[in-house]
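In practice, a research group might receive sequence data for several interacting partners and want a quick structural hypothesis before committing to experiments. The following worked case mirrors that situation: the sequences arrive first, and a predicted assembly follows.
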Amino acid sequence: MNDVDVFTALAQNIGILHITVGNIVMILIGLGLVYLAVKKNYEPLILLPIGITAVLVNLPLTGLTQPPTGFLYLVKHYLIDTEVVPLLIFLGLGAMIDFGPLIANPKSLLLGAAAQIGVFVAMLLALLLGFNVKEAASIGIIGGADGPTTIYLTIKLAPHLLAATAVAAYSYMSLVPLIQPPVIKLLTTKRERMIRMKQLRPVSKKEKIIFPIITMIVVGLLVPSAAPLIGMIMIGNLFRESGVVERLRKAASEELMNIVTIFLGIGVGSTMQAQTFLTPKTLMVLGLGIVAFASATAGGVLFAKLMNLFSKEKINPMIGAAGVSAVPMSARVVQRLALEEDPENHILMHAMGPNVAGVIGTAVVAGVFLSLLGG
Amino acid sequence: MILSILTEVLEGLKITVIGVTVVFVILSILAAIMAGFKPLFYKRAKPVKRVPETKEKAEKPLEAKPAEEKLVLPPGLSPEEISVLTAAVLGFLEYKRKKLEKIEVFRELPGLENILYVAGIAFKAKLRVSIGGVEKPVEIEEIPGGFIVRYRGKEYRVGLKIQ
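A structural hypothesis for the assembly, expressed as tokens:
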């Protein structure tokens, strides 16, 4: 090999000579996500690894996403594509969630169901914009405000949209305090926002142990395709409520959760390559994500108002907005709005009921999509 | 193009109807089951009934109730001996505290007091205990976990444990 050949070979291996405009844009988007995570504290646990991995995968010639041995390829192929990570996240989530407020007020489940209307509104809009049904379902599920479910469903129905839907889901979850209040205020009167609710009854340990077992069996029998998601969340919850496997609860909600969150972040980030992410569809997905969140909020609030027409004990319609499963952000937003109207009206626990019901509702909707559209 | 979009939208509407129905049915079933939890597992605490106070009751003077529990004495000890022993121990502890307070190191490090016995330093005292105006001389001496009290030529072992 002469000097010219050596120089040519060396030049061919310098990344900067291969960088494209698309790569630069994606690096800027990745850095934008890092900025939002670090500076604005927007879902930093997930947006930081996604953002920085997006930067990494857009550096040319790294081979990180090249099959069969690229590290990020291995992470995505074995942990994300196989759905191991989203399901383990659900296990950890279950170990962290207290279903007590939901058990104390079972009507909350209906609010969790009502908020899923946003999923279908966004899906129909996506269809009108020219997406196919599977893509539309993956976009609609963003309205469930549940990152792992969004990822789980998108991997099965429209894997090419994974990066866009995941980024939209997690970004908008962090924007719940900005997206929800205008919708809630638009649909409720000051008087409605001031409705005080009766204190929730105490829930026994026995009830808390039976709840995950029954939910797993009922959902598993009626919508088997939702069983992996519901099953994992309920197993995690049983760890928590049984009180006899403290080590497992701690491992699921802390160590395991942290590990799988890292893999989820870098796995999703690895899909943010310029050639797949920088498309008009991504912009539409991001736009539809906001519509999904807003319409889910509206669905919950309007259904709560409907319930008030038939119920003796009035409920504060704002708690319907917490039916989107961004736990516990949306419940906190509702609490803040209630306190703005009446500084002594504490409805956080009432809002937590629909909030955790939303997690179950979104998982059931994902199961319905999988049953009807196939994996 | 428009036709294909319309076809997709129609399919979407069908999925929406099925999806909304399924999610409401399933969550309603769960809600119904959970509503059943309440009568099964939740028992509301019974409200305490308030007995209306009658005039008669209110005016009735309070009567002192006779003590229901009978004092059980350790075998072989008279009430007088127990009184003397109790007073002797209390008096001794006070005596010891006053003695130690005079020494600065014990004032600053009160824990040191506990290792005196290990170091071979045991306190002894001769006290006069007054019961019913009659003074009774007693001798008291520290031993591990308690005291030896000498009274009227007899030796009593009194244990003291702080729980």
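Before designing any experiment, note the following. The longest helix of chain B spans residues 2-41. The CA atoms of residues 53 and 69 of chain B lie 29 Å apart.
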